[in-house]
Design brief:
By secondary structure, this protein is α+β, with helices and mostly antiparallel strands. 57% of the residues lie in helices and 16% in strands. Strands 1-2-3 form a three-stranded mixed sheet, covered by helices on one side. The two termini are 42 Å apart.
């Protein structure tokens, strides 16, 4: 996913409605998300499905690492020797 280009990638809901097909084509080929505004405020972000999948996978990975670090800090670990015995 490429970074948002402020001058091109923020559009109003009415512009999105009028140009939806063209905008979807651009998202697919540029891999830049589009911010859709409603009443002048950001309301939604539209992105290529593969970019969304990659983003959510990264979030799950970071959460798993964070949980592992918390487990270590709180002593919720199994020593290697005990783990070997359970195999």
């Amino acid at each position: 996913m490429r970074p948002i280009n402020i001058s091109q990638d923020i559009i109003s809901l009415s512009d999105f409605k009028n140009k939806a097909s063209k905008i979807l084509y651009e998202i697919k080929h540029s891999h830049r998300p589009i911010v859709i505004t409603q009443n002048g405020k950001a309301s939604a972000v539209l992105m290529e499905p593969s970019d969304f999948d990659r983003l959510t996978e990264q979030v799950r990975f970071v959460e798993a690492v964070h949980q592992g670090l918390m487990d270590v800090q709180q002593g919720r670990v199994i020593p290697d020797e005990d783990l070997d015995m359970e195999r």
